[in-house]
Amino acid sequence: MSAGDEPKAPGLLDGKLSPTRPLRASGNLFAFALDVARALPRRPFQVREFVQQTWFVASVTILPTALVAIPFGAVIALQLGSLTRQLGAQSFTGSASVLAVLREASPIVTALLIAGAGGSAICADLGARKIRDEIDAMEVLGISPIQRLVVPRVLAAMLVAVLLNGLVSVVGVAGGYFFNVVLQGGTPGAYLASFGALAQVEDFWSGEIKALVFGLIAGIVASYKGLNAGGGPKGVGDAVNQSVVITFLLLFAVNFVMTAVYFQLVPPKGA
Amino acid sequence: MGVAVQVEGLTKSFGSQNIWSDVTLTLPPGEISVLLGPSGTGKSVFLKSLVGLLKPEKGSIILSDADIVTCSEAKLYEIRRLFGVLFQDGALFGSMNLFDNVAFPLREHTKKSETEIRRIVLEKMDMVGLAGAEGKLPGEISGGMRKRAGLARALVLDPEIILFDEPDSGLDPVRVAYLNQLIVDLNAQIDATFLIVTHDIGTARTVPDNLGLLYRKHLAMFGPREQLLTSQEPVVQQFLNGRREGPIGMSEEKDVAQVEAEMAALAARGGDQHNGVGPKGATGGDAVPPQLEPSPGLPERRAVRRRQERVARMLHTFDPATAAAIRESLPPDLLARADAGVFASSPDVAGRHRSPDEPPTSVLPGPRGQW
């Protein structure tokens, strides 16, 4: 839209209620993602920033993730424990629990934490830099903030998400084992032996791929919102809030799509 | 020598809100220019447009054969290396200490060795009087130090154009005086083109070669300092004297009758000469105070002679008061040539912002009440 030759009278609408406004916002986000993709191969790659950010994102997410993963595994174990008993399929408790953790619980927990802890931290960091003119200063110094700041952060979020997914899988399965065997009196042998009955290696890979995509989305949305923060400290707060909400919405939607695709690509065992 | 920046017909709006339109001026190479304007007239927006952080809708900004408004992103990043920008609060990177902040552009853009970077950084830090503070974090130092550190960072790539966004804000008058001296000294040393956006009338009266005033979404006037300092234009006079009497109101324009009444009251008191001292270094009257000279021991500002030749060419285009003030500043040889009419035939060399054929720039639309 070119601002017309005549300055338009400020009206009620002023473009704010235009039906295409949400389209424009998502278009901008997508364009930003493309910019990031274009800056990805550009040298020099910011190794230092990448390592620092990976450490940073990991440090804000690992502990909460582990703490969320334990009760999550426990809940699944409890639900399954009683369900399998009702169905008379106790021998499948371990298998079902692994399946639930690997396929859904662990990508979802990863998504929550990578968006809620990692993404919000990235967004707040970039937003604070934006309102202090640091981003402008960087651009004026001839350095692209996308290449210098965003690319390392997005890659860091992706790497950490993949690692977190592994962590959640292990902690979730271990938590499930503990609750099933120790608290519900299941048999350790049966629990372990049934691991491979329903679950397969592809389940793990699908979880990892989901986590990779979640990390990508969380990193992009957080960076986009952070770099477009405005209006002082309140603007940064708003940006963080929006970034978390948008990331959640996107992640759950993408999770659904990826799960649907997964079942088309990889037939369940024995089906 | 710094590069010239030619701005033509520049128009910027945010949504339906017009910030300014049709701004045309040329920053002459190597000279110091000051852009004044009431708060909220988009002076910072103008600076950001100059470095391509904001895209104006219309017009062009030409420097070294590239148009910043329309050029590609890659070209823009290349051109930006010609710029050094001092942001209002220095815009230092909060996570790095001062040394790393100043070294940042060198590390990103050059393949210099760490020892050489160290030498350059310490030299620039010394230049702005920050020797010994290299290890401090931006959060630990005062606003004045942050500003000077931001200046050192802006200088480190040897820019051709340096933009200052309110270098005086948040500083005490003594530090402002030092900073102004620093600006003049820097200009003498590196001969880059300077543009300072400020509210400080003291700075505007003594530092620059050229003055401009943004008012009511237009560039009200831009020209040699003498032109604005001797101007009879009510807006320019009001601003330079820092008084309430005049067309500029607290939040919006005043109606004509009120302005006339105020001006009559002012005249009854004896005019600006007897109006006392205004805020921010505004002093009464239209005297053209002497310009700041570089500190002793530094080379002369090469821009001075260039500017003298430039204004001598334009001499016959100014009104008598301005011309008289300019004549006082010119050396005898140029004055003789100007009077002999040698310059009159080559208007183009004079810089495009004030060619002799143009009407005087100081034509303002009347206040809203008159329309």
UniProtKB/TrEMBL annotation, chain A:
InterPro entries: Permease_MalE (IPR030802). GO terms for molecular function: phospholipid transporter activity. Keywords: Membrane, Transmembrane, Transmembrane helix. GO terms for cellular component: ATP-binding cassette (ABC) transporter complex. The chain crosses the membrane at residues 55-78, 108-128, 149-171, 177-199, 211-227, 239-263. It comes from the Bacteria. PANTHER family: ABC TRANSPORTER PERMEASE PROTEIN-RELATED, PROTEIN TRIGALACTOSYLDIACYLGLYCEROL 1, CHLOROPLASTIC. This is Phospholipid/cholesterol/gamma-HCH transport system permease protein. It comes from Geodermatophilus ruber.
Automatic annotation (TrEMBL), chain B:
The keyword ATP-binding applies. Coiled coil: none annotated. It comes from the Bacteria. One of its GO terms (molecular function) is ATP hydrolysis activity. Residues 270-304, 346-371 are annotated as: Disordered. CDD domains: ABC_Org_Solvent_Resistant (cd03261). Keywords: ATP-binding, Nucleotide-binding, Transport. Residues 5-241 form the ABC transporter domain. This is Phospholipid/cholesterol/gamma-HCH transport system ATP-binding protein. It comes from Geodermatophilus ruber. The lineage of its organism: Bacteria, Bacillati, Actinomycetota, Actinomycetes, Geodermatophilales.
